[in-house]
Structure formats: structure tokens, C-alpha cells
Batch of 2 targets.
Target 1
Amino acid sequence: MARIVYQEMKQPRAFFYGLVSLHAAVIAVGLAAAYYMEHNGHVVTGMNNQIVWGLPHVFAVFLIVAASGALNVASISSVFQKLDYKPFARLSGLLAVSLLIGGLAVLVLDLGRPDRLIVAMTTYNFKSIFAWNIYLYTGFVVIVAAYLWTMMDRSAAAYNKPVAFLAFLWRLILTTGTGSIFGFLVAREAYAAAIMAPLFIAASFAYGLAFTILALITMCRSMESMLMTDEVVYKFRSLMILFILAVLYFTAVQHLANMYWAKHQGVERFLLLEGGVYTAVFWIGQILIGSIAPMAVLAYGPMATTRWGITLASLLVLVGGIAHMYTIIIAGQAYPLNLFPGMEVSSSFGDGQVTHYMPSIPEFLLGVSGISIAMLLAAVAILFLRFLPKPETVVPNA
Amino acid sequence: MTIDPKIAPAVAGEEGVGRRDFLRAVAGFAGVTLAPGVMLYSYGAAARPLDEAVSGKVRWGMLVDVSRCQSDCDACVSACFKENGLSAVERPTTDAQWIRKVDIRDPQTGVTRSLPVMCQHCAEPPCVDVCPTGASFKRADGIVLVDKHICIGCRYCMMACPYKARSFVHETHTDQVEAAPRGKGTVEGCTMCVTRVDAGNVPACVEACATTGNGAIIFGDLNDPASEIAQRIRTYATSQIRSDLGVDPGVHYQNL
């Protein structure tokens, strides 16, 4: 393989600056929305004492899961020695960090007391998986930054292998931690299972790859140059199909186990059959749009192995990812806690009742701004540092 | 940070007002509530001196006799709201409810029951396990509380609680009471009326149930074999809600 030469974004087209401006505007609106919610309290959101985590969490968890998956391409190239992916390793690392920061920003801004972030950073309860995640997130940023350094500075190249391996290991632990935020909740019937960790890891592979592909396609368009060879497009396509199947597999096992246990059949009936909008989000959003459609695009039809094909499939996977997180986070809370198994229950506090959640516009704006924070950070980095391969140096293995 | 003068004593340890003022205020509050009429509802033990650490030998708990609890009675709920300044602002989904009446019906037999559900003050509280900052904590005497100073409002404890016992403060409340400061953006729940208990009294819900309700709730030290609560739990079959979860609630129910 020819030696890969990297470059900053050279003479980007108006398209690039248009996107940057759009993301900046979305971030400004998102921050205004966060201020509005912080100032008035969560009473102005759709969240309540039943749905305590709303749309901001959907976006935040989605981005955090995607972040660890975005490191895939770098890991495949460094840890598994697949040199075809090496030209995109830097971009992959950059996206991993920026997506994580975008997700964390939303998570923090949705806290009841975001001004107490310093408390969260200095006062720990080490039995809490949430507290562990704070270490996992900050550690991830530091390790991936070091990983990027070993890729970008020849004097540090000797450390590339061990740091790459550490980053790969860390990202697996990180997503295990994110999945376990839900898996460790003993009383939430929709979550309480160890499978949440591998499910989230599989999901991270799919979302992270989708973000990487879309970023690459956007860069191609911004620079009017071809960064991906047909061979790489084909490899990304195969990987994406594999990752979507993995998510489907773990989702199927998760629901099958719940259906088997009599005590969880109620929540399964709710999620899969009788949950109204939640059932629709699962079947139409996660399964149809997020899984079946992208696989159909990638496996059959005229676009199967084209850039258009992987672009469309990636977009579908991301929409499906939001639906997936919505099903897990919102539907899982909408189903009532089962305080008195086998009994019909009612109270003034919504016991025994399915909760209807109507997200407010500020929540949505804050959530979406997380994506824009990630994209803007990546765009600025790409503009000034050598993250992108020079097109003529990206050649397939001869 | 500015402190609402109404809640200042409760945050005295950290802000402006000194510890002595704080203790004096609490002592004064205790003195008022120890008025003769209320003595009837103290649990018999002397009030713990406020400069003495909480004892791990004690485990405060409650026993609710569900057969005495009537569906149309909400004396415990009203008393809790009054005691803790939980004025409802008619937003049922976001208004705090530290205690609620739950009606249950067995679909097979048609038998109905009505019972109060509040923080169950678990021995192994999931809310304490998951809290990232340690704001959710269990006192040595078994009372589960939220440290308002370090709660960041992440609501993970609300996700973890099997009893839906916690509420999030969704908006600013100006009509607060000294014993229960309420900060917008933090999580709160039944404190077992900790200031009353520390002063040697019973929680407000227990007192109200005895005076205007049906005498269904008793309060006491689960660890003291001579206490009424311990004797009744020894004598009669009682249960804990979702005992299968193994969190060992401090609230027990009889005739559930």
C-alpha cells in the first residue's frame, strides 16, 4: 500500500461552511432551550415524575453509544491490522471523541442542577455505575486523544499499538457501562438484564459506523474529491450489514427471554403489541426503518454497493438508532412499575397506568444540538489538523 | 447562591448561618413539637441529642395494618403534604407525592385493599446504590435521605427505585417549610419526618393516622425487641412490598 499522506480540509466548498453554520445555529438554539428549561425547571418539558428521562436522554445515550462505535474503523486498522481502513483511522478517532462530547453535553445540560457538574466530577459513590461511567467517559477522551497523537506524531508512533489496544478495550468497557446503566435497574422490567451491555455494544458498532460513513461522504462532497475507494465502500457495506444483524440478534434474544418469563410477559405485550406509539416506534422505527430497510438497501437493488447506498443505509440506521433508544428509554419508563404483582392497581401517582409522554420542543432542540456539537467539533478539527487522507494516497491493496 | 430565608436553617452547615444557629433552630423546632398534646404520639424514646451521631443500633420502620386502612381516608397524605410544605400546584404528573394511597384489587377474587406507599427506607436501597454523587444516602438508623447539597438532579435514583417513591422538583416552590427544604432540580422523597424523629416524635403521617385516620400505622425501632412494631412483626404475619427484590424495606404491611 502506498504511504498515506494526511491533510487538513483544503479549500472547502460553500457546502462545508453551510453545514458548519447550520450546526452552529442549532447549537445556539439548543443552548437557549437548555437555559429555558434550566431557568423554569423541568416543568416546561414533557418529563414528569413517571418519565424522568426524556428526549434529551434519548439523544445523549444515542450519541454516547455511537461515540464508542465510531472508534471501530480506527480499531480495525490498528488492532486488527486491516490496512484498508487506515486512511480513515484518524477521522474515526476524532468522531469518537466529538460524538462523546456532544452526548455528554446534552446529558449535563438536562441535569436538574447542571451548575453542579463540579460536584459530579469530585464527589463519587463508587457503587454507582453512573459514577463509573464518568471515569469511563473522561478516560475515553484522554485515551483516544493519546491514540490520535500516536497516529499523528511520528515521534509517538512507537506507542501506537499498545494505545490502540487500550482504546479498543476501553471502548468495550465504556459501552458495557452505558448498557449497564439500564441493565442494573432491578425493578424496571423492560431493562433489568445483563444483555443490555452486549446489545449496546452491537448498537454502537452500527451507529458509530453510520456516523463515520456519513462524515466521510460529507467530506468527499466538501472537498469535491473521492476519499473512499469502491473497495472500501464495499467493505463498509458488509460491516454495516453484519452490525445491523448483530443488533437484531441481541434485540430478539432480549425480547424472547422476557416473553419466556411469565412475570415479564406484561411488559413484552406492551412493548411489542399494545403500547400504541411505543409499539409503533419499535416496529416501524427500530425494526423497519432502522434494520430491515438499510439491509434491503445494502443487500439488494441498484444502490447496494454504491456510495448512495451506504449513505442512505447509514441515515436509516441512525434514524432507527434514535427509535431504538426511544423504545428502550421512554417505553421502558412508560410501562408502570409492578409494585403488586398480579393485582389491579390505581393511585393518584399513576400507579398501574401507562404514562403518555409528549416531548416538548426545547427538549428536542437540546437533544438535536448534541449531534451538532459533535459535528461542529469534528469540522473545526478537520479544518485545522490533518485528519483526512489525501485522495491520491488512498489506494486499495494491490 | 442565595438562600431562601425560609430554608436557611436547613442549609446552615454550608452557607452563611452557623452550625450553632442551625442547631438552635432545630432545637427550637423540636421544643415546639414536643408540646404536651403531641407527646401522646412520641415513640417513647428520649430525643437524641443533636450533637450525638445517629446510632446504627436503631432501625426505624413502620408497620401498616392494611385491614384498618380505608380507601376514602387520606389523613396520612394530607399530613405529609402539610408537614413538608408539598403544596400541589395542580399539575398531577409533576407535583411531588412523598406518600400516596394506592388501591389494589385482586382480579381473581375481587378483594380490594387500600394502603399508603411511601419511601420504604430499604436496608439495601437501590436509589443509594445508583446515585453517582452519594447524595442519596442511608443514615445509620435506616432512614434514606437525599443530601440536597450534592444532588445533581440526574434522576437515576428515580429510575432505580422499585416503589416510585421519589419525586423531582420540577419548578420553584416558595412556600417551603423549615424542616423540608425543596430545591428546584433536585430529587426528594419521604424523609420519615427525620427532624420529628430526631426530636423524639413520630412521623406526621403516623400521627395523623392515629388522630384523624384509623390508627393503621405504627412507627418504631425494628431492632428493639421490646418495641411495639418489633413485637407485632414477631407475632403476626406481615409482608414487605416486592420483598422478592431483596432490598429489605423498613416499611412492613400487615393483612396485605
Target 2
Amino acid sequence: MGAQVAAPPQGVLLPSPGRLAKNGAVHKPVNSTIDIHSEEFLRQLMRRQLRLSVGCAATFLVALLGLPLANYFAPDLMATRVFGFTMSWLILGVLFFPLVWVIAWVFIRRSIALEEAEAAEVARSAAATPAGQPLH
Amino acid sequence: MTVDPWILAFSFLTVAATIFMGFWTARRSRTASDFFVAGRSVSVGWNASAISGEYLSAASFMGIAGMVMKNGYDALWYPVCYACGYLFLLLFIAGPLRRFGAYTIPDFAEGRYDSPVFRKIAVIFVLFIGFFYTMPQMKGAGTTLAYIFPGLDYRWGVILVGAVITLNVSLGGMKGITLVQACQYWAKMFAIAVPVFVLMSVYGSYGTQLSPNAPGRKPLPPTAPADAAWGSPFGPLTTKAAKAANATPRWHPTPELREGLSEVPTPTRTAARLMLATPEALAKSRAALLVRAMLEDTATTTVTGTNTPTMAEREAILDKGLAEEGILLVPAGPKEIWAVTTAQAARFQYPKANARALSLVYTYSLIIALVCGTAGLPHILVRFYTNPDGVAAKRTTMWVMILIGIFYVFPPVFGVLGRNLLPELYSAIGATGTDKVVLELPSLLNQKVPGLGSILSGITCAGAFAAFMSTFSGLLVSMTGALAHDVYGRMLRPQATPAQRMFAFKIAAVIIGVVAILLGMCVEKLDINFMVGQAFAIAAASYFPLLFLSAWWRGMTVAGAATGMLVGGLLALAGVSLTSFTDLKLLPLDSFWAANPLARILCEQPAIWAVPLAISLMILVSKLTAHAVPKDVRMKMLVLHAPEKLGLKQEYIQEHQAGH
């Protein structure tokens, strides 16, 4: 892994490994430790991220896959002229791009917020962890 | 036609500026990291411009306008899905891959599965898809140069562009290319937008030109599709297979049909009997038979008024006569024709293919191929590693979406204007036909303002140069990276010093560049879209499922990943090859495709089955080999998904090095 350059953690708390810490309770009290190496943390992390991604993808797929269906089942409506364009041409050739921007913008804002919330949560929990735990 | 000085000047300027920037950045690219991932320090603005510059290839710059002009609405899916594919990349793949922090896709493949064998498979696929994608760029270079210098051999364009880019990549690596590509994005944007605005101000806006009674419209030649088919969904592109099937009616060859002969009036029956009686003659040609049949009929000469009617006249007479009598000649086998009444024919003919339903299948398959294929193109993915951190990677992607989205509005405008103002391009095909509408259309303005047209045409030529040069440089960097980093740095000489690695990068760039030039010379006859389509189909059915499942499913094993990727990718390739080899007259499958339009569509656009197949295979084989799931998969998934602030990557590397 010689040439691998990974950004060093800049003044960030090293997470406590705590792999052996007993974190039995499923519904943890607010101020309990978050074990970032636990199954639970990972599953929650992935689920949150996937939910966001799938939500955004679904919005966009409804539009993308719905347009051929609209063309198929409502050809007259889609052939209505708007500013010289047919409705269908206007949607696909012009309006689709702003839609994609909006979805991308929403996704990026939310996913950055999500990452910050996760990092803050871990940091808070690490600060609450009693000192003396072995560091990695 | 002589060389236009403006076109020459602008094209020369683009090439010269590219070479200059290459030399200029060469002094500033020093470390191996500069070469492979531009030191991971490219700012958001530069990187977004560079990614967009790399993304907008010759197919985007010239091909889309040509396709819209030729096929109308159906071709609009291309620009839209190119942009949407990027969104998919952002939603599902960009973030995890960036956090994993590998240099190349093969790095990711090996790192995720701890399998050196899988790295080798991934390297082969990077090179394979890369070369498929390189060939159309090379073809674009050759044909554009042949347009600028009429009479120049196609191969010189390929050699010139290939050599310039190979020089740049080997001098400056990724860092050098980043600057060049960023500038080329703005060159392309300028080159497509300015002529469009000038043309629209003279000839009328996008919407006006698109309306049926656009001002200044010239009559369409017979080779052009009619307005109704061109402007509406399910037009020439997506209904081609169904139309071909319906053009040759097929019949149930039942004995009933043969008995039906008795209902046919005598003269025709004689003719038909004659046909049935001489299968050898029938085997030779239908036309020969028709002549014989008509010789029986003395009326032939009197109708045409000449003693030797041409074959077409004879066929027309016979067809007319048969139609009047309500008789159809039915091809019932390779050596048999039956004459039946139209009432019988209606009973025995296969139902016509539902062109609209098949067209819907084609449209969906095209969408899947383009969206998933974009998300799986290795030379686009490698760019995500050049961002300093994950947040920057996401911001970059947002800007890329905006930059390419704005760009993609313009090429269809060229297609629409070209249909109205330059319909003579319909009479030729490929590089001399609608594909060059972007280059040729602005020169029309010379009629209004002398000189203006040439200047604008020069600008679009410069844009075309920028298009295939920037995409080719990106491909060259990603393939060179695969060869120098994965093959040399990981497989052959893992102990190599950074200086040796940099030298290897330069050598690899030259090797790949030369191979790409040689391949580019062989593809003059092939269609640009056929080659791009193959690259997308393979990427959609191999890399996309691999990256998607690797990032989001813990149960994936190396056996599952490799099986799905290889089977999906190779079957997609086989399907696309079958149809394109038929079109190139290398395979005698025309009658099979005519009989099975659905099969034709599924082979021509395989994504609709190949992507789900690859994903199911990956899941199935992974379940069967569940014991082989990497031991530290939880740690890997954490690195892929946990915020970078937590510094897990660092911890993972330390642990990994300690473990091995």
C-alpha cells in the first residue's frame, strides 16, 4: 500500500475501537457510547445512506421511466405544441436537465449534512466515553 | 473544395494550445501521485471543468446532433441519459469509492475482495472497455481532419491526434491532463453555444425551428424520415426492427393454403403453377419467375407500349394485375411461392409486430444501457479520486451535472436546424452525412454575412478537436494507469521506486497510445455509434453491477463478482456484435431478425436483460460461495461508508499492513 495517500485525520478524534465493549442494548440511551465498529453502527450508517440515495434515485426514475409510458399511453397530450416544441420534446430535450440538477443538489446537501451529523454523533459519544479505554 | 483558412486557423490553434499546455504543466508534475491522481489536490472548479471536458466526447459533440437530425425525438434519449447516468454515479457509487481511496478500479477490485486474481480481471476489462471507447474518438479525429483538408487520408488524422495526446499524457500525466481538459470543456461549450445562438438569431429560435411550418425550411429529400415519425416518440430509431419485420410478411405454410390455389382465377393460377413447377428457376430469382409468368400473358407488351418492358415495369404490371384480382404471391419457403386470395392471406399471415410496444422495449433498454453504462465507465470513475476529500467530490459532481447539462441542450438544436436548413446531408451516411452537421451548418451564414459562417464553422471544428482530444486523453490516462500502476506497479514490480513508477507511466502511455492509433486506423468503416454503444453495453453489464453491489452488499464474494461481471459483459458484447455484424454483412442473419424483431431488439440493446442477469448471477454465486466473504468485510464496509472525518481509512491501512 506504499503509494496510497489517504488524507490524514486533521485534528479529529481517533475513534475508540471498543470492539469488545458490550453494547447489548438495542435502543441505547442518548449518552451511551457509539461503537463505530459494531454491526449496529454499520447497518444504521448504510441504511441511512442507502435510504437517501434510493429516495433520490426513485424520484428521478419515476420521471425517466414514466416519460416513455406517457408517450405510449397519452400520445396526443404529449404531442401538444408548447412554444413550437411538442410537450414531449420540451420535457426531454430541455426540462429534464434542471430536474436532474435539483435532485443532485438535494442529494448533495442532505448527504453532506448526514455525514456531519454522523461524525458529530461519534465525536460526542467519544467525548462522553470515560478516559482510560485502550486506544488502538 | 479548398481548405477554409478560418477552419484551419481555429483547429491549429486548438492543437497548438493543447501541446503548449502539456509542456507547461509537465514542469509542474513531479510526483507519482501527480501523475496518477493529480496529487488529489485539484480544486472543485478545475476538476468539474476537467471531468466535463473529458466526458463530452466526439459522440456528444458531433454524434448527438447527427443522430437527432437523422432520427428525431428518439435520439434525445442519448444526451438526457448521458447526463442522468452521472446522477446515478453520484447517488450510488461516487461517495463510497472515493472514501475507499484506491487509485484505480482494479485497486478497488483487489482491495474490496483481497484477491489479486480479481485485479487482473478488472485490469483486462479496463483496457477492453477503454479501447472500445477509444476507437470512435479516433474515427472522429480522422473524419474531422478529412473534412478540414478534403482529400487528406483518414489515417493522418488518427496519427496526428493520437500523437499529440500521447505526448501530453506522457509529459504531464493526470495533472497535466486536468488543466488541458478543463480548458477544452470551455472551448467545447463556447464552440457549440455561440454558433447556435447566432444561427437562432438569424433563422429563428429552437421552438420556432421545431414547429412544423418553420420559416426558411427547405424541402426534405426522400431519404429523410417524414415529420410525423421524426418529431414523435417511437420514431425511426426505436421502431427499426419492428418495421423491418413488418416489411416482409410471414405466413403459416399450411396445406390449406396450397389447396386454396383452386380458388384463384385461371391466368394467375397458371402463373403460380408455373412457379411451383420450376423450383430451380425460383431459386435463382423472383424476378426471373415473374418474367416467365408474364410471358404467358400477351397483354404485357400492349400495356407498356414497348416490346421489351423493363423488369421493374413487368413486376409492376404483375403486382397491379394481382392486386386487381385480389391475389397475393406468398413466399412459402426458400423455393416456393404460393398464389392465394387476399382473404386467405389474412387468415394465414402472422400478426404484424406491434411496432409501438417493441419500440417501448427498445427505449427502456436504451435508457438502462446509457444510464448504467455511464455509471460504469472506468475513465470517468478514476476522476473522482482527484478530489481532495469526499465533500469536494460531491461538490464537483454537482458542478459537472450543471456543466454537462447545459452543454447537452445545444447539440439537438443543431440537429433540428440541420434538418430544416441543410437537408441535403440526408443523402449521405455517416461521416459525410448527418454526422458532420455541426461542422457544416454554421458555414450557411456566409450567405447572410460573408465570412461569419467560416469563422463559426472554424469554431465548431476547433470544438470537435477539443472533444475527441479530451476524451482520448482521459481514456489514455485511465488505461495507462491500469497498465503502469496495476500491471507494472502491482503485478510485475511491486518494489519499484517512485521514479521507476513514473517512468513506467510514461512508457505505458506510449504503448497504449500506439495501440490506440493502430486500432483507430482499422475502424474507418465502422459506425461511431455502434462502437460507443458496445462500450456502454459492456460497461453497463459488467462494471456497474460490480461497483453497485460491492459498495452496498456485504455478502458479495469474489467468485460472484467475477462471474456476474464476465458473463454479463461478454453476453452483452455477443448480443451487440451479432446485430452489428449482420448490419456489416458479415453474418447472414437478416431473415432471422426479420422473423424475430424482439430478439433483434434484445441483441441490439442488451442492457434490459444483461444488467439484471449480471446482478442476479452476482447474488446467486455469492450466496453459493458465502464462506468466501472477506473476513474483514465489516471494516471494509465501514471505510466505504463512514464519514471521512472519522479517519477510518488510516486505521484500515495500518491494520491491513500489520495483517500482511
